[in-house]
Specification:
Blueprint (H helix, E strand, L loop, with lengths): L1 E6 L2 H13 L5 E3 L3 H4 L5 E6 L3 H11 L5 E6 L2 E4 L3
Antiparallel strand pairs: 1-3, 1-4, 2-3, 4-5
């Protein structure tokens, strides 16, 4: 199972990826499914499920805003309840 953290732009996703990497959380940048991005220029970072809490904590500390957090369950992306 994995987690998808969605950002409004590729620039925000790149900045977030650097912040998370400094916190020891590796991620893979990808385009999110259209229904998760609202048809915008959104980009996402995919992280392992168990790395989601430290990833989000590092983003909060850095003041990076995100568009949404989704978890893959039963083959579908569902918004995470945090």
């Amino acid at each position: 199972m994995g987690c998808l953290i969605v950002f409004r732009s590729v620039t925000e996703a790149q900045r977030a990826q650097r912040v998370m990497l400094r916190a020891g959380v590796a991620s893979v940048m990808t385009k999110p499914p259209l229904h998760l991005s609202g048809g915008s220029c959104a980009y996402a970072l995919r992280v392992p499920y168990e790395q989601t809490p430290p990833a989000l904590a590092s983003l909060r500390r850095a003041g990076i805003r995100l568009q949404g957090v989704y978890i893959r369950e039963d083959g579908l992306w569902r918004e995470a309840v945090l």
